[in-house]
Amino acid sequence: MPNIQTKNFSHPSYPFFKDGYEFEFATLENKGRSLIKVSHEKREFFIEVIKRDSDYLIKAEKLTRFSPVFIIQKALNILATTLNLDLTYSNIESKKSSMHLDKSSQFLKKIDYFVDEFKPKSPIAIEIGFGSGRHLIYQAKKNPDILHIGIEIHKPSIEQVIKQCKLQGIDNILILDYDARIFLELLPSQSVKTIFLHFPVPWDKKPHRRVISKRFIDECFSVLQKDGTFELRTDSQNYYEYALEIINSFNTYDLKVRKNFSLDISSKYEDRWKKQEKNIHDVILTNTTPKQKEKKSLKIEFDKELYNLFPTLLKNFKTECIRGENFFINFENILKINDYEGVLKVTLGSYEKSEHKYIIFKDKNVQYFSNNILPTKDNFDAHASLIKHIKKV
Predict the structure, then answer these.
(1) What is the number of structural domains in the chain?
(2) CB within 8 A of 92, min separation 6: which ones?
(3) Of the residues 232, 254, 287, which one is the last residue of a structural domain?
(4) Residue range(s) defining the domain that contains residue 352
């Protein structure tokens, strides 16, 4: 993590500009810590200043840091040279190897991309938990006119598939490291041709962590085209029976089940299970009656009049947690810029996938930082509850 250390530090006058960077404001020191807001082109982040026993540690604040790291390194270097800091330590020496963008970005996308930029021009297939990537790559090569989105949280698997995409010249795969249950909620109605869920973790002792639920199947019916399919493949008898029980609570589908059906491609784990003579179950749903999602705003925003409530919020702030049926809000900290402006730190959203955010009250405006929260139902509910809480504090 890029950081510098110095014996003495005093904040300059804000804002100031240098080399395309704007150092906009700083919060006042609170328990030995303060934040400096920095923007460069389309990037925004915080630099954190931590007062220690005998020196200051200055580093990228972890919730807002990003890649490529050289942008943050340059900001730290500007701060050090502008204030003429007498550094006792620095790990921000420029290296040519760090001064290029990650070439994997062609394939590996962040969740914000699918909210702000994703406009598919071809049918979509989704594979949840692609593992070794054999099936994902096979499907992409077999169906070059379909955009394949692979969702996986295992980093070595992601790296391996990106490597194969580059070696084999595959250009119709996008990869996402995120919770698939939330991802489907962000897609437009009837935009997906196929969803594959092959050999998910059974989670027999923690069934709430399973991908399949009534809410997940409902989202599948919303995003699948007419005659689009959802395909579950599992070696777990418990998961197979659980999935059928969930699915049978719906009635707008055609259902097909298979046992020990051989696909054209299989993973090394499936090969191993077949040698062990384990049964492989397929559950295939065909969407006969597509659903239309509720139309909602793509952005979750604050009313500007909330800005005037910061002094009261600052005076009455306390760390606490608000819990709803499908969401929670944890109020963690509040930092002051001046008597009327400041920064609120919260964690909020669904119990499955929460978001850590700062909320900036400044220039007669209120906004999430460093970017907005995702426009999911749980986040909308959490946001509405957050506003209600601020108004009554």
Answers:
(1) 3
(2) 2, 3, 4, 73, 76, 77
(3) 287
(4) 304-392
Amino acid 310 reads F
Do residues 152 and 174 both lie within one domain?
A: yes
Instruction: Mark which of 36, 65, 98 sits at the end of a domain.
Output: 98
Cα 181 to Cα 213, 320, 348: the distances in Å are 9, 28, 17
30 half-sphere exposure, CB direction, 13 A CA radius: 17
3-class DSSP assignment, residue 289:
coil
Shared domain check, 203 and 57: no
Domain match, 151 and 110 both? yes
DSSP 169-207: T--SEEEE-S-HHHHGGGSPTT-EEEEEEES----SS-G
Does some domain include residue 356?
Answer: yes
The order of strands in the sheet holding 365-369 is 320-323, 328-336, 342-349, 354-362, 365-369
Q: Please tell me whether residues 139 and 266 are part of one structural domain.
A: yes
Give the Cα separation of 266 and 284 in Å (integer): 17
Query: Which structure tokens are listed for 103?
Result: 């070439």
- How deeply is 54 buried, as exposed, middle or buried, from its count of CB atoms within 10 A (0-12, 13-18, 19+)? exposed
Q: In the chain, what is the straight-line distance between the N-terminal and C-terminal CA atoms, in Å?
A: 37
CATH code for the domain of 130: 3.40.50.150
pTM assigned to the model: 0.85
Q: What is the pLDDT of residues 219-269, one digit of tens each?
A: 999 999 999 999 999 999 999 999 999 999 887 679 999 999 999 998 877
C-alpha to C-alpha distance for 181 and 349, rounded to whole angstroms: 14
Residues 84 and 110 in one domain: no
Q: What is the mean pLDDT of residues 136-150?
A: 97
Q: Examine residue 299 and state whether it is found in any structural domain, yes or no.
A: no
Number of H helices and E strands in the chain, helices first, is 10, 20
